[in-house]
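Students often ask what a 'structure token' actually looks like in practice. Rather than answer in the abstract, let us consider Acyl-CoA dehydrogenase family protein, a protein of 396 residues. Its sequence is given first.
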Amino acid sequence: MARHIHTDPDFFGFAALLSETERAELADIRAFLERELAPLADEAWKKAEFPDGVFGKFAELDLAGRSYPEYSNTGKKRRSALFQGFLNLELNRVDPSFAVAAGVHTGLAMGSINGGGSQEQRDRWLPDMVAFRKIGAFGLTEPEGGSDVAGGMRTTARREGDTWVLDGAKRWIGNGTFADLVVIWARDEADDNVKGFVVEKGTPGFTAEKIEGKIALRTVQNADLVLDGVRVPEENRLQRIDSFRDTAEVLRATRGGVAWQALAIAVRAYELARQYATERVQFGRPIGGFQLVQDLLVKMLGNITAMFGIVTRLAQLSDAGQDTPEQAALAKAFTTTRMREVVAWARELFGGNGIVLEYGVAKLFADAEAVYSFEGSREMNTLIVGKAITGQSAFV
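Now compare that with the structural description of the same chain:
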């Protein structure tokens, strides 16, 4: 009798919680991504360039329309958080950089406008963003403010009649070099509260310069932004944003997405390592037949299974409207830490071949470092959870 080999990294079958229709849809999406985008990924990463046409492919998938169906003409219904999580997994399996560019647009930029904008503002911007005719970016992090940007934001907004004047700088802004619409967060000089503004491409005083020399997510076009007396009309101020708490709500929603991204990177690293272990021959046999190699694979699979559990439950809570910022913070901190272990073990399994782009795992090993750090570092997320479980704030 032939032995059954378990090749699926979803070892406990979490995908079975999706409907048969959803699983079929995800299979079609995976095939599309493998056919249309996977061939572009390595060359784009090497050149640190974002290929033309990628956003067009996302439009073909109606990627944004699944989250904002009221602004899409495909007739699809809004998808569950669990389905969106598995979709996020498929995007990141193909290429984390492409997935980040999509997430900045659909999650951070569109999420800010959808959650913080008036109905008129949503109707003005979201249809073009759903169709990827206009690309969005999210300007929060600053050169001198990452983890402490909430209390130390230096970008300011000053109202002059029906116009706001923005001054300051932002850093690490994904899609920043080419975005048509950038959501800029700035502190109002009058009341010291953080407000959100949509700055349109070509606005005088607004400049973007690509950050060079990255070793992770190289395809993502991160930018340094400078705002020098940028004048924005009151109609471009997000009308339902009154404080940093509203900004944090956008981050809470996307933090769960980063947990799925961490899972996806771990999944892909494991897939590559398991396949390599069956093909690489040393001492006259595939290395997958050696105990130490099997130990590495099983440790990877254990981490992945635990990660599947936490992100699946977080998605279920989100669908029920019961998820909390602390749960999202724990998910992000836990999964990115486990991801870091998985990609290191995978690189170890490949030996010297693990440091060249040809075998795939080197790119994941590098990209994982960015995912580990953004959307709140592990340390900051542990402080959010720590406060929730002790009642004591350990923030400086």
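One point worth highlighting: The radius of gyration is 21 Å. Ask yourself how you might have guessed this from the sequence alone, and why that guess would often be unreliable.
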